[in-house]
Write a structure and sequence with these properties.
Elements (H helix, E strand, L loop, with lengths): L16 H10 L5 H33 L4 H50 L2 H5 L3 H43 L1 H8 L2 H45 L3 H53 L5 H43 L20 E8 L8 E8 L4 E5 L6 H8 L7 E6 L2 E2 L5 H5 L2 E4 L8 E2 H6 L7 H10 L3 H6 L7 E2 L8 H15 L3 E5 L7 H15 L3 E5 L3 H6 L2 E6 L2 E6 L1 H7 L1 H12 L1 H4 L4 H4 L3
Helix pairs in contact: 2-3, 2-5, 2-9, 3-5, 5-6, 5-7, 5-9, 7-8, 7-9, 8-9, 13-15, 15-16, 18-19
The chain binds adenosine-5'-diphosphate (ADP).
Length: 605
């Protein structure tokens, strides 16, 4: 089944940086106590940084000038004490802030996880899995770096800066003004650099997303690529994307590495200005030498926080871009939502009714029109028709992956739009063409159908699915680890495991997208038998590719161009001619179908 690709990559608007920051900070709210503790320690360490040069200046004026070694010793001790307290305060501040940052991060990751499960299939199916992976792993890591380091350093530096500015203003106004005259220049330079950096980092994020998506695709498609001799083509395409990412990183590094030297230059100029102007004032007798010494210290300490903040600001750009993408995902609304007063669907018998249902993915382009059908509990409904007829769409509507445009779908007489999605889907099972196994053991994969099932129930389901024998023969039996896509298992074996999983879940309504996969005849026969057991006693909608399925179906619905054009049993339809007769001929001549033994004989022990 294919679902349309949602527009996840909204235009990035640099103006909403403030909003993003605010939203990130809002995540800190539950942890305000530790944030407060951190701020307390920040204040102490900022005070210590401002007090240091003051003490040194005092020592110069009062004790060195007056040749008072005892006083000098006292000041030295005091200074050591102040710096020690400052150092410990800094440690505590970092500890508490990183702690809070990690809590926020864990919350964020959890939200993303929940959101992925909340969004319906069509929100995610279109996403390239690699791109989504990259988003979740890299973007959250970016935010991590920012929250656990950037934010702490920014706050620490800002407070330190405020302390230093106050101390300078209090010591000597003219000298303080001259020292700070450099600030506008710095802000301009920083603004320039951060604009460049934001652009550069955004480019690195985009290109690494491309690279991961390509890698993911290569990994899952390498067989096809080799079969079609497209390896060279694919490698070249990867080369391009890889190169784009490399260049983007080089540019980003060039931008950030030009920043420090520029700031150093400004710092040196400012130191010279303070020394010159301060020296002049001292000669004039307007300030003491101690004040000039203190100022020279301040200039150094004053540049460090500004530099830290601006540097973090540049790397914060990438954190903002990352946060923006994560929030974008979090803000997506599922296409299908429960009504405010949605009720839980009680346990159903499995009657399914479509009443004049119409639906289209896009406005003005109907995909299904006037679909009316009734499935009695336990009946098998085979859906046949050419590709694009609307078979997958019909079952998507029953699963309520989309809401109907007009008409109604009733399960046991309940309009499914009035019911919670959870209660509806918990009574439905889906077995698709492409059997998906999670990484974990075979046991876990089957138990996924019903988490509280005991081992015996799992074995029983596996036996009913004709999977038990081959599982026992696996190196680790039921404890064999299977990879994301089923790794070493054959397509047919994976199919059997997913059938066992569905059997264990025991849904009232089953949707089966029949495999046309080429499996060997013996396995095909096993699958066939297993499917028959699976269909037994459940209302089933089968997108049919097997002749035997249509033969045994209670109703066959022939779809064409979004309408049901023929309906009846296999025999009735066959004698009627038309589209069905055509399709039947094709099924009949499909070699995979004709060599198939009769199901009863195929049930191997
Ligand atoms: P079938 O399962 O019979 O092959 P589908 O239900 O997949 O048919 O498709 C029916 C029609 O709807 C086709 O024309 C197909 O292109 C279109 N379609 C299917 N999925 C989407 C989608 N997610 N967005 C837009 N059009 C779609």
């Amino acid at each position: 089944m294919m679902y349309h690709r949602p527009a996840l990559h909204a235009e990035e608007t640099p103006e909403n940086r403030g909003e993003i920051l605010l939203r990130l900070v809002r995540y800190l709210r539950p942890y305000w106590k530790s944030v407060l503790a951190s701020v307390f320690f920040i204040l102490i360490s900022a005070g210590a940084q401002a007090a240091g040069p003051l003490l040194i200046g005092q020592a110069v004026d009062q004790f060195i000038a007056a040749n008072d070694p005892a006083g000098l010793g006292r000041t030295a001790l005091l200074l050591a004490g102040v710096y020690t307290v400052g150092m410990f305060a800094m440690r505590f501040q970092i500890y508490w802030m990183s702690w809070s940052g990690q809590q926020v991060l864990a919350d964020l990751r959890m939200q993303v996880m929940r959101q992925i499960h909340r969004l319906s299939l069509q929100n995610l199916e279109g996403e390239e899995a690699g791109d989504l992976m990259s988003r979740l792993v890299n973007d959250i890591e970016m935010i991590n770096a920012f929250l656990s380091q950037g934010l702490v350093q920014t706050l620490g530096s800002l407070f330190a800066l405020v302390g230093i500015v106050i101390a300078m203003l209090a010591l000597n106004l003219p000298l303080a003004l001259v020292t700070m005259a450099i600030i506008p220049v710095m802000i301009l330079a920083t603004g320039f650099f951060s604009r460049l950096a934001r652009r550069a980092f955004r480019r690195t994020r985009e290109t690494i997303g491309d690279v991961s998506a390509e890698l993911e695709e290569e990994l899952s498609g390498v067989k096809t690529a080799q079969a079609f001799n497209r390896s060279d083509f694919n490698i070249r395409r990867f080369e391009e994307r890889n190169a784009a990412n490399r260049d983007a990183n080089v540019t980003a590094n060039a931008v950030t590495s030009a920043f420090s030297p520029a700031m150093d230059l400004l710092s040196t100029l400012d130191t010279a200005a303070v020394a010159g102007f301060g020296g002049y004032l001292a000669v004039q007798g307007q300030v003491s030498v101690g004040v000039v010494v203190a100022f020279l210290q301040y200039v150094q300490n004053f540049f460090r926080p500004i530099q830290t903040v601006t540097q973090i600001w540049t790397s914060a750009q990438s954190a903002f871009a990352a946060a923006e993408r994560v929030f974008e995902l979090l803000d997506q609304e599922p296409a299908v939502k429960d009504l405010p007063r949605a009720a839980d669907l009680p346990t159903v018998r499995g009657e399914v009714v479509f009443e004049d249902v119409s639906f289209g993915y896009e406005d003005g382009q109907p995909v299904l029109q006037g679909i009316t059908l009734k499935a009695q509990p336990g009946e098998t409904i085979a859906l046949v028709g050419p590709t694009g007829a609307g078979k997958s769409t019909l079952v998507s509507l029953l699963l309520r992956l989309y809401d109907v445009e007009s008409g109604r779908i009733l399960v046991d007489g309940y309009d499914i739009r009035q019911m919670t999605q959870h209660s509806l889907r918990s009574q439905m099972g889906v077995v698709t063409q492409d059997p998906f196994l999670f990484s974990g053991t075979v046991m876990e994969n089957i138990r996924y159908g019903r988490l509280d099932a005991g081992d015996e129930a799992v074995y029983a389901a596996a036996r009913a699915a004709n999977a038990h024998d081959f599982i026992e023969r696996l190196p680790g039996g039921y404890q064999t680890q299977v990879g994301e896509r089923g790794g070493m298992l054959s397509q047919g074996q994976r199919q059997l495991i997913t059938i066992a999983r569905a059997l264990l879940a025991d849904p009232r309504i089953l949707i089966l997208d029949e495999a046309t996969a080429s499996v060997d005849t013996r396995t095909e026969a096993l699958i066939q038998r297993a499917l028959e057991r699976l269909l037994e006693g459940r209302t089933s909608f089968v997108i049919a590719h097997r002749l035997s399925t249509v033969k045994h179906a209670d109703q066959v619905l022939v779809l064409d161009g979004g309408r049901i054009v023929q309906r009846g049993t296999h025999e009735e339809l066959l004698s009627g001619g038309g589209l069905y007769a055509d399709l039947y001929r094709r099924l009949q001549f499909d070699p995979a179908q004709t060599v198939q033994p009769e199901p009863a004989a195929a049930d191997a022990p």
